[in-house]
Design a protein that fits this description.
alpha/beta, two-stranded antiparallel sheet
């Protein structure tokens, strides 16, 4: 089981958000946005911020760092180490199972990821037989997109998707995000797509829009 930082917004949470960080960061990366994201009146939510394993990253001269998978080349079609993606998806599934064991059903668990973490979010979401409450993919892309249709599980498209990307992103090009959201729509997902004038990062407008999206779905659960 991956180590993780946890923050509960109230007692006995019946909703969970599992949030995956980007390359070279750790679980603490997105904890500071909670005051901007969480709103009065929301039911208690458990936020889980896991730390990715430390591994050598080829594109960064083999320097060990926290990463959800190795990156061997810049080309997005071949960027993600598929064995590493599969291993991280399994670790995420273990985190989901732990939330379920703590009394939070899959229908009240959100999976969120930024950059590499977002790629794992989408890879895991495609394979979910039991739908989650929603998938959030920030500044990211669908890994191994040419095999996404083959990986799609029955019922996975019931999961709503929030995707956001910066138009000035030099790390994961904006076009990659556009193509990924189009692919997900072709597969049958309902995608709420947002673009912002920012680089490879998050912005306050994005957090506000994500808060609106989460609020609507927390009210439904």
């Amino acid at each position: 089981m991956l180590d993780a930082i946890e923050r509960d917004t109230g007692p006995s949470p019946r909703h969970s958000v599992i949030w995956l960080h980007g390359l070279g960061a750790d679980g603490s990366d997105f904890v500071p946005i909670l005051p901007e994201l969480v709103r009065p009146g929301w039911p208690p939510v458990r936020f889980v911020f896991p730390h990715a394993p430390v591994r050598p990253v080829t594109i960064n001269n083999g320097v060990p760092m926290r990463a959800w998978y190795d990156i061997r080349e810049a080309d997005l079609a071949n960027r993600a180490d598929e064995a590493g993606v599969a291993a991280s998806v399994q670790q995420v599934e273990e985190l989901i199972a732990r939330e379920q064991a703590r009394g939070v059903p899959a229908s009240r668990i959100f999976l969120v990821g930024f950059s590499q973490g977002g790629a794992i979010t989408l890879a895991a979401g495609l394979r979910r037989v039991e739908p989650l409450a929603g998938l959030v993919a920030l500044s990211t892309y669908v890994p191994a997109a040419h095999r996404a249709a083959a990986a799609l599980a029955a019922g996975a498209t019931a999961q709503p998707v929030f995707m956001a990307h910066g138009t000035q992103d030099p790390v994961v090009p904006f076009r990659a995000g556009e193509q990924s959201q189009a692919l997900l729509r072709e597969l049958g997902f309902a995608v709420d797509w947002h673009a912002y004038a920012m680089p490879h990062s998050v912005c306050l407008e994005e957090i506000r829009d994500l808060g609106d999206w989460l609020e609507a779905r927390l009210a439904e659960a």
